[in-house]
Sequence to fold (332 residues):
Amino acid sequence: MHPYPSPQLEDSFGRRFPYLRLSILDACNFRCSYCLPNGYRAKDGRGKYLDVQEIQRLVSAFARLGMRKLRITGGEPSLRRDLPELISVAAEATGVENVGLTTNGATLHRHLNRWIDAGLTALNVSVDALCPERFERITGHAGLEMLLDAIDQALDSPLRSVKINAVLLRDLNDDQLPKWLEYLRDRNVTVRFIELMQTGDNLEYFQRHHYRAQVLESHLVKEGWQLLDRATDAGPAREYQHRDFRGRIGIIAPYSANFCAGCNRLRVTANGDLRLCLFGETGVPLRPLLQSDDQFSALQATLIRQLGLKRAGHSLHAGETGLIQHFASIGG
Fold:
């Protein structure tokens, strides 16, 4: 039984939010063509990221209001040297049951065991192609073989969940499905194909490489893949299984009908701004309320009040991308 059995993270549409995505920095060491093709550039005047104590207060407040699942994101979160401490702080918060990490995996082979020892329970690794040349073309980074070896290490570890993320890109990786099926045949891992989303700075790229996830989903159904029921604290993916494959396939299709109806996640940026929606037009500064334990009640009241303002859905179909310029700025 949860110590706080009455979640209050609920919006005016009756949606509850047991899932928080927390960015801990916006820097990244990859140059993915769909996100930071020219590499990361620090902005002048950018404030420092939330520190360990601020994150501890933030996570505790969300957990007291019903948050059970935390995912640490970036940019690339492994660039923070205090990442093990941040994982530990999150794992020790009363009420938190699952601490996940989304990473490009460049240092996974070196740090996986440290992260697990700190309390990590779930891992998502970005792998946009299984062909080394194609992988390097998309990410600007070599080393696919080492990355895949590290994922196999993670699959043999005590982690409860290991997933792979791949952004669907027309003319870049949309022919990779046969390789992925071969990969999934004997591995207990979910590969999640994510439909490319328009952001503030990628319109031309989006128009050139957008591939409808619905096309892939229809193909999977024809090939005998069956849709699974969605867990209450799961992310937005529709997950499929097939009796001939040990692994599963997830589809994240933000342009599909009713995508936002099952929204269950909130986001906080590396500088402490609450984002009610990935493509929202406003951010609510929480950092002023993270400076003292005495501000705990005010912080909780702010979270509850802001949830009452959450909209029913995004406006991506109308080309409105909100504040987001690229995904490294908020962690997707």
